[in-house]
Amino acid sequence: MLDSFHEECGVVGVYGHPEAANLVYLSLYALQHRGQESAGIVSADGQVLLSHRGMGLVADIFKEDIIRRLEGFSAIGHNRYSTSGSTLLKNAQPFCVDYVGGAVALSHNGNLTNYVELRRRLESDGRIFQSGTDSEVILHLIAMSKAERLVDRVVAALGEVQGAYSLVFLSESEMIAARDPYGFRPLVVGRLRGQERPGEGWVVASETCALDLVDAEYLREVEPGEVIEFTAAGMKSYRPFAPHAPTRCVFEYVYFARPDSRVYGRSVYQVRKELGRRLAQSHPVEADIVIPVPDSGVPAAVGYAEQSGLPFEMGLIRNHYVGRTFIEPQDSIRHFGVKVKLNAQREVLEGKRVVVVDDSIVRGTTSRKIVTMVRNAGALEVHMRISSPPTTGPCFYGVDTPTRKELIASSHSIDEIRAFIGADTLGYLSERGLYSFLGEGPRGGFCDACFTGRYPVLVSDDEQPIQLHLFEAKDR
Ligand code: AMP
């Protein structure tokens, strides 16, 4: 069964350290926001690969005795976050297999757009699969390659796949990192401080917040189309794929990455704050206070408040102990749902004209509940401000968005959305506003398909792509 199309994930790898698995474990904590469904670590001791995977949060899966068992001088890890229908241990990564060349494990962030096609081809050749995810086809393609060295097998495999991938591979003696030629998803390289020998102290991670936690120095991004091999001889870079005009995911800046990370070479916090400033310039309003929807709206709200000169307040307080596994109550007690996560402070809101800043509206249901909550706490007016353009398109490159039909902005005008969420006014940052400082050219080297419907790599499986083409044709 083909379970999964939308996967956000965190990946990490450590090469050349006696406590590699422990460092990967710590890094997975830093990347927990990128996936809470499952996590895993595979370590290499020079002879064999050792693996542990489980469902849930990093803290629930790994205990001291498990980490101790994951011996070796290198290790890779993975946090997985996916949509419904695929919450199964068989889909947890890193995947670890034996093939004619030895053993290899893989951690993948992103979605392969020609996955269904490739899988059907491999299955008709008699190959069997143990998971329902796209990442497994890469391992089959590696095993099928006739090349001698693992790095050449990886290059051969990646030559056949399309779409989004930030990958870390581990064999008994080496680690390999790779990023697709478009650079859809982030991936960075760092070095543990104090490590001088060529084959020691290398760290690869989705975000720099993981490097900070293990005291590694940020060196650079893995470049789009680059493959990096880590061996006892050190780090070696390969450029097997012609560089493509980059289409890095702009939603990492808007919502997904942690604000204390550097992504694509910039501080996420500073970018979000600047988005808030631009939002205040393009959508000013007479009000008394600015409040964020925590946590995702905080940096943009700081920027909005600074630019507008209005006081920044925490009018909504978030409960940090509610995970994704929280069960939404049904029917008669339904309205309690959002209150489990957020509580409005009457002391802050009563009698005030309030600007509420969030990073995005997806279905609109959260914003609607928040507006009601802020009003019930005594706000006189509620002005919703969103620090990105309307989300109109689903992501096929690795961000968990619902179908186009469920995205409120795909079928409603801004005024209809305003009416639905019950706000006095609603303002989104424009596409121009988004790129006014982010990059050169109209799209600044980013993929913004979720806002514009312009998909840099078309999806070629026979479920979504056909719909996609039809939608595209109808939309224009
Ligand atoms: P909604 O009720 O669907 O409009 O939810 C909007 C909220 O979801 C905003 O507060 C966003 O910060 C948050 N959000 C945006 N994208 C995602 C995503 N891919 N996964 C989970 N939450 C998201």
What are the SSEs and their pairings?
Layout: E1 7-15, H1 20-30, E2 38-44, E3 49-55, H2 58-61, H3 64-69, E4 74-82, E5 95-99, E6 102-109, H4 115-124, H5 135-144, H6 150-158, E7 166-171, E8 175-179, E9 188-192, E10 202-205, H7 208-213, E11 216-221, E12 227-231, E13 234-238, E14 248-249, H8 251-256, E15 262-263, E16 266-267, H9 268-282, E17 289-292, H10 298-308, E18 316-318, H11 337-341, E19 342-344, H12 346-349, E20 353-358, H13 365-376, E21 381-386, H14 408-411, H15 414-421, E22 425-428, H16 431-435, E23 446-447, H17 449-452, H18 464-475
Parallel strand pairs: 14-23, 17-20, 20-21, 21-22
Antiparallel strand pairs: 1-4, 1-10, 2-3, 2-4, 5-6, 6-7, 7-8, 8-12, 9-10, 9-11, 12-13, 15-16, 18-19
Q: How is the largest sheet built, in terms of strand order? A: 3-2-4-1-10-9-11
The CATH topology of the largest domain turns out to be Glutamine Phosphoribosylpyrophosphate, subunit 1, domain 1
- Secondary structure category: alpha+beta
Count of discrete domains: 2
Shape: elongated
Instruction: Report the radius of gyration as a whole number of Å.
Output: 23 Å
Mean pLDDT: 91
Ligand inventory reads:
adenosine monophosphate
* Fourth-tier CATH superfamily name of the largest domain: Aminohydrolase, N-terminal nucleophile (Ntn) domain
What's the CATH class label of the largest domain? Alpha Beta
The largest β sheet comes out as: 7 strands, antiparallel
Gap from first CA to last CA: 34 Å
- CATH architecture of the largest domain, by name, is 4-Layer Sandwich
Fraction of residues in helix: 25-40%
Low-confidence stretches: 461-476
> Helical stretch count?
18
Q: Strand percentage, roughly?
A: 15-25%
- Number of strand elements: 23
